[in-house]
């Protein structure tokens, strides 16, 4: 099904099941410990052996020699795989550094060997006997030190890395109010609950993987490319995933080495990355340095806005897209953005929840707060004054050939593309009222409860809503049961549930009559889980398949025309009704289709918006910061399930508090690795850090986004949170911290 004109009224609008806060279908499995995660699949294939990954002990250089004799002779060892013995491997496009290093070493803990043994303990013990001689080379590990020589990135998210509108330098210099400051964000680790894990089994030249991955089709393609085998020979299953946050978008070492280990051992092999290997072996979010300049007129209107970003990655990597939202969030005639990319020999940088916007807004939304203060305006009023309903950095797309000819005297065509919907102002106003913003003192350091200094902070949130093709297969059987199959994943987001709701609504059956099967490459290719596109696109694919199934059912029932009603397990027309079970017959009915998009996302900017409010208390003597209250008001199209959506947003808000106050991969700039590479040293918030969170969704539908009229919230929820916390800390203390995380040593 092609979606290229705004959605009309359709069965989803009934809202009998879609839009209801139903419990997660996979919830009982997950809380009872019975959801089968990859590493626990003892049942799927017999005779599994265990692989232990050996990581490089240097960051850059090469392996001179590697002595495997002692490891091979150790008890229980079946095989040892290295780059030398693995056969020819190609690096897949989506991996920046090879997943199996050697002789060249590209980063610390890059995998250099896999030891396969009868037991986990034997594999681990033998791995400790692998002796490696390295030739170390000098590397580049410190973003601040190499920032000045960093070239412009070649592109960012398919757009130019730099943008210019008007005369930024002139307008900024002429502005009566100027703000110019530099902000930094830290390297961050996804730190999802379930480590990367894979069981691999070969049957002849066919490979089967039980793994934990967000994007099944990417995983299949990249494994096939790496091994040089046809895609058809790779089957990937990933039905349950214990979190990803972008860290499981790509093929990683666990999967490749399990496949290589299984080939060498001639039996199935399972591999997990121990927690302490995850930060340096897998991907992370790059640190950023961001210079922001904002010039305004006396009345507070922004005349010039500039956002320059530096980040770092391995050679051949990409930048952190932290200035992209600045092209679209606030008005202003003179504009400048850029993304420079330094080569770092740290582990590979890549997407982590709201890549770009999360660190970008962490900086921009402090700068906006600082500018509002200089102008002498309330920060909410300042944001509202500078709202825009078009994307000021982009020219409007050319009028299409079939547009009606322009009449004389008709308004000028828009110069910039409009948003499909943008209710940021409503989010800010609604949130201010609910939060009690009027109690905030504009001057910092004015509210005190005992030793605690109290402050309020606000930030705007912006995250794009991306369109991705997504397909599904839907079956109806003679019991009236509907089975949905798609390679979509559920990374803890609620995909099982919203897909079941979609099919139930479309076919007029109760939820109990729907079975959802996900995460298997033998199913139709979906959008997968990433970039907060999963909810809207995967359900749209299911919608398309259900439209087709409805046609098949109608035909079998002997109905014609489009005035059909699907309800209570029946299809009805006029006064007649036929039970779905009967229409399906013994053979059943199967339909497969997907959603594909035209150019609606070129004509309209499709984005999601929110306002975040935070109250903090800062100990006047120790600088300890406690978040006391958080509120998010979100505008993100139709909310398919307010319960799962709320869970996404409160999880993201929690992650935002981590970015604000705790999370920082500390770099050893001499040796070139992340020192705090486990959850003892890499701190993330726990329940006790987050006392109260409230989430409000504006009641909206976006007919331009998809037939579901939905967008996404999983990444919107983190965007802006760090700045709202930092702004609240400033309001409490009068100390402006521009370097994340905002730790107590920076407040004293
Ligand atoms: Mo997301 S960072 O694209 O999983």
Automatic annotation (TrEMBL):
<dbReference type="Pfam" id="PF20256">
    <property type="entry name" value="MoCoBD_2"/>
</dbReference>
<dbReference type="InterPro" id="IPR016208">
    <property type="entry name" value="Ald_Oxase/xanthine_DH-like"/>
</dbReference>
<feature type="region of interest" description="Disordered">
    <location>
        <begin position="389"/>
        <end position="422"/>
    </location>
</feature>
<dbReference type="InterPro" id="IPR000674">
    <property type="entry name" value="Ald_Oxase/Xan_DH_a/b"/>
</dbReference>
<dbReference type="Pfam" id="PF02738">
    <property type="entry name" value="MoCoBD_1"/>
</dbReference>
<dbReference type="Pfam" id="PF01315">
    <property type="entry name" value="Ald_Xan_dh_C"/>
</dbReference>
<feature type="compositionally biased region" description="Basic and acidic residues">
    <location>
        <begin position="404"/>
        <end position="415"/>
    </location>
</feature>
<dbReference type="InterPro" id="IPR037165">
    <property type="entry name" value="AldOxase/xan_DH_Mopterin-bd_sf"/>
</dbReference>
<feature type="domain" description="Aldehyde oxidase/xanthine dehydrogenase a/b hammerhead">
    <location>
        <begin position="32"/>
        <end position="138"/>
    </location>
</feature>
<dbReference type="InterPro" id="IPR046867">
    <property type="entry name" value="AldOxase/xan_DH_MoCoBD2"/>
</dbReference>
<dbReference type="InterPro" id="IPR008274">
    <property type="entry name" value="AldOxase/xan_DH_MoCoBD1"/>
</dbReference>
<protein>
    <submittedName>
        <fullName>Xanthine dehydrogenase family protein molybdopterin-binding subunit</fullName>
    </submittedName>
</protein>
<dbReference type="InterPro" id="IPR049648">
    <property type="entry name" value="PaoC-like"/>
</dbReference>
<dbReference type="InterPro" id="IPR036856">
    <property type="entry name" value="Ald_Oxase/Xan_DH_a/b_sf"/>
</dbReference>
